[in-house]
Amino acid sequence: MPGAVVIGAGPGIGRSVARRFAREGLPIALVARTPRTLAEAAEAVAPFAVPVVSLTADSADETALRAALDAAAGEFGLPDVVVYNAAIVQADAPGQLSARAHLDAWAVNVVGALTAAAHVAPAMARRGSGSFIVTGGMPEPKPGYVSLSLGKAGVRTLVTLLDQEYGSSGVHVASVTVDGPVAPGTAFDPDDIAEHYWRLHTQPRHQWEREVLHSEHRAR
User: pTM here?
Assistant: First the structure.
């Protein structure tokens, strides 16, 4: 049975999204960099009694990420939905980071999403259905978060490009833009944010949204 792949299944949004899709009975493939993160995510999903596979991969490592996606497909088939939630979130002012550090952040924040989409979206398009959802942020750039502002702007453009390429074939490409710090019990509770991912995945085609903004005002 096809299911959901969550890339960046760490604490916060990734784990909550995995739980939200598991609640609907979908098998879950968890992808993260460390075994500990995967073990904690699998434990969080366990109460829903759905099949779960845990896969170790750094989203900046193209070979490892593609292998993880192949392993997920080997377990459950071509996924119904892939959620790309990996990101390097750091405070940095203009000129503070080296060029190498900016490239490392870009590799995770944008290129990893492109790698994942390039690996699964063509098959989704041939099937005529599927969702590819990316966690966005920074609706307005901030000089205290240069690398993240650039990365989230890149993600927004990537989603547009992927929609142009695969949307007409039935692949819903969208982003959930989170305009604030994620924390349980706040306006940016990850369980509340996870609802956007499920809603986007289940939207009728004539109502598809390409971006959902979760702000303090909207959350309330």
Answer: 0.96
